[in-house]
Amino acid sequence: MKRILSICLAMAMVCCFFVNITAKAVTFTPSFDINSSAGLLINLDTDEVIYQKNSDTQYMPGALVQIMEAVVVLENCKNLSMRITADEALYDNFRNSEYADDLRYAEIKNHDILTVEELLYALMLTSSCEAAVLLANQFGNGSISNFVQMMNDKAAELGCTQTTFTNVTGEYSTGQKTTANDLALITKYALSLGRFETIACAASFRPTSPNPERHEDDWVWTHSNLMTQETSTNYMENVHGIKTANLSMQGRNIITKASRDGNNFLVILLAAPFEDGEGNLQYYHMDDAKALFEWVFEHFSFRTLLSDSTELGQVTVNNSEGANYVLVKPDKAFGTLWYDQADETSIVREINLRENVSAPVKKGDVLGTVTLKFSGEEIAKVDLVATTGVELSKFKYYAALVKHFPKTPWLTRAILFSILFGAIYIALCIYAHIQYLQRKKAAPIHLRPNSSSARKEARKVDEAERKEPPYHAMKKK
């Protein structure tokens, strides 16, 4: 129930933000290039893409698949305090892996008892293959392959069109592919679940479930994202973990988050090389993440690119009382993160206003749109609305009706119907006359009113009636 409420609240917030405004991403290019094969930098507050490189190209995600595993577990677990007993029989799923060097462990031994939440910490901080199979088995109803299908179903539900999962450990598999854009959809959804961020962004975690055979003080899991570790040369302030992954056949992957001055950003980097040209081990994925975060923090700030008080034109209004036009302005102000090296004066405003507008017009009626473009890319499309109301002039309205009536289709239709019904009436008259003539011609001669015998017969009747005495005279006799 809480999950449903949180999703509804998130959707409501998104709808409120984008009402009457259609915004599109405008990407910018930094002065440096990244070493990773694919990259994506997103503002989490506005869902704007700031930078992208090969973001629709498929790569193997490695242990990044465990972000989706955590999502499925969180959505299907009613109690994160539920305890799971480790069963090393399940470890056979990865023990004989051909790519064992790609797997990471949290030293979860047979019969160890941990809560679901503790296993999620092991999963997200260390990429624990033990936690991965234990959770998948538990919430896949005893079937890891069934759980993998649940992951694929969830990916499809989120709109991931280029993602396929084949395992939960992240080990090498040519069939397990995704893209930076799809991983962004998955990670943003995971962050909306609330508890996920707390777990995935922890710098370290110590399990507290009692396991007597262990020395609990030594059992600490540290996040594999060295950017969160103050003792590391890769450390960067205000960076939060989320997930890393290594694949010997492809390279290093990372998804991480950073926040500063109330702005939150997500970086996704895939297939960064392990070594430099001289064979020295490198952490290029973290170098790239740090460079992108520093770039966006230094060069981007929130700018209002369109004020809601700026009058952007006028629309002619027919049959109005008084002025025959109304001014229009943006329905909402539009602001976004803007690159300080991009000239705001180069933003083009394309205004499209309605034609043949007739009174009455209410204040706030949508009468057009303005599209903001930069370097040919659309930034936003905003509705233009009437700044004032315009009343209807009844005199102008009826005068216009009289004036335009001859040009209206109703007159043409009336004429056509009149011609049609007139033709039908004439045809019926002709038909009735023909029928009359035919009946008269077919009648016997003695019944025809114009025959001589009929005339003689009529005269005889008249004479007899004249000779017969009136009725009252006969009554006196």
Description of the structure:
- There is one protein chain.
- The protein is of the alpha+beta class and 477 residues long.
- The protein has 13 helices and 18 strands.
- It has helices spanning 2-18, 65-76, 92-95, 116-126, 129-139, 144-157, 180-192, 195-200, 284-299, 394-404, 409-442, 452-467, 471-476, and strands at 21-23, 38-43, 48-53, 83-85, 113-115, 204-205, 221-222, 239-247, 251-260, 263-272, 300-306, 313-318, 325-330, 334-339, 348-353, 357-358, 366-374, 377-386.
- The strands form five sheets. Strands 1, 12, 13, 15, 16, 17 and 18 form a seven-stranded mixed beta sheet that branches.
CATH class of the largest domain: Alpha Beta
The CATH topology label of the largest domain is Beta-lactamase
Q: Give me the count of strands.
A: 18
The CATH homologous superfamily of the largest domain is called DD-peptidase/beta-lactamase superfamily
The percent range for strand residues is 15-25%
* Distance from first to last alpha carbon: 116 Å
Which architecture of the largest domain does the CATH hierarchy give at level 2?
3-Layer(aba) Sandwich
